[in-house]
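From the methods appendix. Each design record in this collection lists the tokenized structure first, followed by the designed amino acid sequence. Records were kept in a plain field format so they could be parsed without special tools. The example shown here is representative of the layout used throughout.

RECORD:
FOLD TOKENS (651 positions):
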């Protein structure tokens, strides 16, 4: 958009920027900057209008954009332009992801590179490498306490090796996702060290206070993220002689985005990683970016403005790079992280679908899809050109963050239902096959979350112990069905490393002083590659799970109706054990797939007549795309096996 005030400012800025930057070939940069400048300027002013150095800050911002554009490797610039042409490229059903820790999945970065064929064997072509930036030894929240944002941790490898991994992946059509922890730094980061040493410039990078008066005001409304291991939201720092805001662990200092220098530093860092070859940047804990006394300091308006600004800026320098919003918040809040509209107020292209994830586990515990249906029904529509990251498990806990009103609609009392779920998964019921651990129990509020490996939560650990073959098969079927839902739901399915082999809980964290107080480590296993070989041995659980997933991934990629164009219709079968939806491709009407999953351990019937008549789904025999089997529909009824899933070809 052309607007004279901001255009005049842009011209002044271009006069002021470092002369070195003027010499370079910046054609694409200038067109994009011209297109986005009005938005960048308005958003920046919204956050920092009280600053009298606003223009000087804007000069710095534009310099950061230009410098990173100049540094951006040619191959990546070419990719940017290709993606501009095909801007919906990531909505395609071909993408299937996996999140993994380089070290516990493979070792160092070259070892990870050597394992790419394994991922390809499974069909994974998007890899989220969990944090690998420099971290202090000892506790570092699994890499989320970064001490140097511009270097790879020595334990993982080198920057060169990371670039090499990116190049190799690109060459093989795979996408690299890296984490940027935008909300906080480690207390060992150089900025924190300088703040400690009394440097006021860096003290302003954080929220620090000489006494408790302001922290106490904040505490009145701030919830606790880690009530057990890190109660409270402020930590006293002896060296600095001040309180510092630490919403997560005591060693994770929250960055102060009220200071434009922090925004510009972080933008520079995001673009740095884009230039190292990341296709996608996962922005950690984005809901927390703006703190305000008297609020929960999550999902604040300004947090969204920051993300819009990050996006608009990134589009100027590296438009092919996508953002994932990691915002594990209420369903009505999550979709806001896609932005208000797809052009002028865009934020992240991808967001974690934490709501569906948690609802899936509800259906597992209750064997009933009622709340899952209610929850999905009230999930707000997302923007066009935005997509979900659908997952069953990840490196974090399962928070039961679905909506109270939906719980009531499904017929339960919210408090006692949540308590039941935590108990069901963490050993509170003798009859439950789930083997999880509680996480984040808060005695004051009664809140609790759930940790545990997918296979252990789904009952495979106890089934294997019992040696009951039928039960083992049922639990494997449940594991496959959960994955079958995320592969068909609409969005990018993100598997969690180890789950493809049915990896169970790893209790060794209890012996590690840096981990024992954080039960999330129970589901962050080290891959046993000898065991992984069993995926080739017919009959083993590893074989059944790995090959079941591999097959579904293959079928997903051949199913255009699974591309994400907001093309999902939720269905309401008259059987509460069943979860069903219809996917249809907007441009290819003949491409329609009816997805039905059974959460019961017995066979259940899906009556097509109740879903609007058999004719809606096609005439004659219907086939299951997963098994290739023909389904009996003489009576208009489809039998769904215990814990089974069908992708019914409807045409
Ligand atoms: C994220 O988590 C990471 O995924 C966690 O591994 C980190 O510990 C945390 O940030 C701090 O860096 O911020 O928006 O309930 O779900 O802390 C949600 C625990 C987050 C996580 C929550 C989450």
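DESIGN:
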């Amino acid at each position: 958009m052309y607007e004279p005030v901001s255009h005049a400012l842009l011209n002044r800025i271009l006069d002021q920027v470092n002369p070195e930057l003027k010499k370079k070939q910046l054609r694409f940069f200038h067109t994009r900057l011209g297109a986005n400048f009005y938005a960048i300027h308005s958003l920046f002013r919204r956050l920092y209008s009280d600053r009298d150095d606003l223009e000087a800050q804007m000069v710095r911002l534009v310099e950061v954009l230009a410098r990173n554009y100049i540094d951006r490797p040619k191959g990546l610039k070419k990719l940017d332009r290709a993606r501009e042409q095909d801007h919906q490229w990531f909505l395609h059903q071909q993408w299937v992801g996996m999140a993994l820790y380089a070290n516990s999945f493979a070792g160092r970065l070259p070892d990870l590179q050597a394992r790419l064929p394994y991922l390809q064997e499974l069909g994974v072509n998007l890899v989220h490498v969990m944090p690998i930036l420099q971290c202090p030894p000892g506790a570092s929240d699994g890499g989320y306490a970064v001490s140097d944002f511009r270097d790879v941790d020595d334990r993982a490898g080198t920057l060169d090796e990371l670039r090499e991994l990116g190049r190799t992946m690109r060459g093989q059509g795979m996408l690299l996702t890296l984490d940027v922890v935008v909300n906080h730094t480690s207390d060992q980061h150089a900025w924190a060290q300088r703040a400690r040493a009394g440097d006021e410039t860096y003290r302003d990078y954080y929220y620090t206070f000489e006494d408790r008066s302001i922290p106490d005001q904040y505490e009145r409304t701030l919830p606790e993220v880690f009530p057990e291991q890190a109660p409270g939201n402020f930590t006293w720092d002896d060296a600095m002689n001040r309180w510092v805001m630490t919403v997560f662990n005591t060693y994770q200092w929250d960055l102060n985005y009220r200071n434009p220098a922090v925004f510009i530093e972080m933008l520079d860092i995001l673009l740095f990683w884009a230039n190292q070859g990341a296709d996608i940047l996962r922005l950690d804990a984005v809901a927390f970016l703006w703190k305000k006394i008297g609020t929960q300091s999550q999902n604040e308006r300004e947090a969204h403005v920051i993300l819009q600004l990050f996006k608009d800026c990134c589009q100027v320098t590296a438009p092919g790079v996508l953002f994932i919003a990691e915002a594990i918040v209420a369903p009505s809040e999550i979709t806001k992280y896609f932005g208000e509209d797809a052009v002028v107020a865009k934020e992240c292209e991808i967001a974690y679908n934490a709501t569906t994830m948690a609802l899936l586990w509800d259906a597992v515990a209750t064997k009933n899809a009622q709340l899952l249906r209610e929850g999905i029904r009230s999930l707000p529509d997302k923007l066009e050109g935005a997509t979900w990251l659908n997952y069953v498990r990840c490196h974090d806990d399962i928070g039961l963050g679905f909506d109270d009103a939906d719980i009531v609609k499904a017929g339960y009392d919210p408090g006692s239902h949540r308590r039941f779920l935590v108990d069901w998964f963490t050993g509170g019921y003798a009859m439950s096959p789930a083997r999880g651990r509680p996480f984040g129990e808060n005695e004051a509020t009664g809140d609790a979350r759930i940790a545990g490996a997918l296979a252990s939560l789904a009952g495979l650990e106890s089934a294997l112990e019992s040696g009951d073959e039928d039960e083992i098969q049922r639990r494997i079927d449940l594991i496959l069905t959960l994955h079958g839902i995320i592969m068909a739901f609409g969005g990018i399915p993100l598997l969690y490393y180890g789950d493809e082999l049915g990896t169970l809980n790893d209790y060794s964290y209890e012996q590690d002083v840096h981990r024992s107080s954080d039960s999330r480590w129970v589901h962050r296993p080290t891959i046993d590659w000898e065991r992984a070989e069993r995926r080739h041995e017919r009959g083993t659980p590893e074989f059944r799970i790995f090959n079941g997933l591999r097959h579904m991934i293959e079928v997903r990629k051949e199913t255009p109706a699974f591309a994400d164009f907001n093309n999902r219709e939720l269905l309401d079968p008259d059987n509460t054990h069943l979860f069903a939806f219809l996917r249809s491709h907007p441009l290819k009407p003949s491409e329609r797939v009816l997805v039905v999953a059974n959460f019961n351990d017995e066979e259940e019937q899906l009556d097509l007549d109740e879903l609007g008549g058999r004719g809606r789904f096609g005439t004659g025999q219907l086939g299951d795309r997963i098994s290739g089997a023909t389904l009996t529909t003489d009576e208009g009824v489809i039998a769904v096996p215990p814990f089974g899933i069908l992708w019914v070809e409807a045409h």
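APPENDIX NOTE: Residues 141-142, 144, 181, 225, 248, 284-285, 287, 326-328, 395-397, 399 surround 3-O-alpha-D-glucopyranosyl-D-fructose (CB under 6 Å).
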